[in-house]
């Protein structure tokens, strides 16, 4: 009998934290030595959950690197202004992969649902506002849906 490398007897539990919808200005697409870059500047957005609601402010973006393996590597940075005036920095990394049919529909402007592609991310939050400091220690996973003009996240806290 072998000893496990890690002696942890646990299963993560997920709790719905919030939903985020972001609308983008037109995408900028260009090739670089490390892959195709897609830059999606944020036009506006909204996040809502049981303990938080606010607007995603213009000026952030999603800087995607599309690799030769067909995987899009996400790099999101944005600012959320809550309805009660707090500012929260949002970062997210993740991976997206679509089969040829979904990629064709995406290129035509369709919203591709989370169950029609592999699209997962990890939003993280930073703030010094006492009302929302609890977010600083929350690790998340999200299911994503995306089109050329918007992205939707269903975000879960991992416990």
TrEMBL record:
Cross-referenced Gene3D superfamilies: 2.40.160.20
InterPro entries cross-referenced by the UniProt entry: UPF0311 (IPR020915)
Transmembrane segments: none
Listed Pfam families: DUF3237
Membership in a protein family: Belongs to the UPF0311 family.
Protein name (database record): UPF0311 protein MPP7335_05191
Species whose genome carries this gene: Mycolicibacterium parafortuitum (Mycobacterium parafortuitum)
Classification of source organism: Bacteria, Bacillati, Actinomycetota, Actinomycetes, Mycobacteriales
